[in-house]
UniProtKB/TrEMBL annotation:
Pfam families: GntR. The keyword Transcription regulation applies. It comes from the Bacteria. Residues 1-69 form the HTH gntR-type domain. One of its GO terms (molecular function) is DNA-binding transcription factor activity. SMART domains: HTH_GNTR. This is HTH gntR-type domain-containing protein. Keywords: DNA-binding, Transcription, Transcription regulation. The keyword Transcription applies.
Length: 111
């Protein structure tokens, strides 16, 4: 997965989990790029995608902040997105659908 997408996905996950609350200020692009060992353009792309999708807002002196959600997240869509990523990963490992589903059931019971 592309590095900008990894940054975007991690910020979305943290926002969905409530770890990053609306109004939370994200690090400046150069600082986050330096911290992650990425090019500034990579982080800038992630921030642009997040802004386009409504996850963050960017404004002058206040920088980039987690946006107030317009509506509650669609949990079904989020679950499908996560399942799609997991299915792709399971396929890469060579697992069939039954083995992948069993791994999910086992992990679910451990929680």
């Amino acid at each position: 997965m592309a590095p900008w997408r990894q940054v975007r996905d991690q910020i979305v996950r943290l926002a969905q989990a409530g770890t990053l609350r609306p109004g939370t200020r994200l690090p400046p692009i150069r600082q986050l790029a330096r911290d992650l060992g990425l090019a500034a353009g990579t982080v800038a792309r992630a921030y642009r995608e997040l802004e386009t999708e409504g996850w963050v807002s960017t404004g002058g002196a206040r920088g980039t902040v987690i946006a107030e959600p317009a509506s509650p997240p669609d949990q079904t869509a989020l679950l499908r997105e996560a399942a799609s990523r997991y299915a792709a990963f399971a396929r890469e490992l060579g697992a069939d659908a039954d083995a992948a589903a069993e791994a999910v059931r086992a992990a679910y019971q451990e929680q």
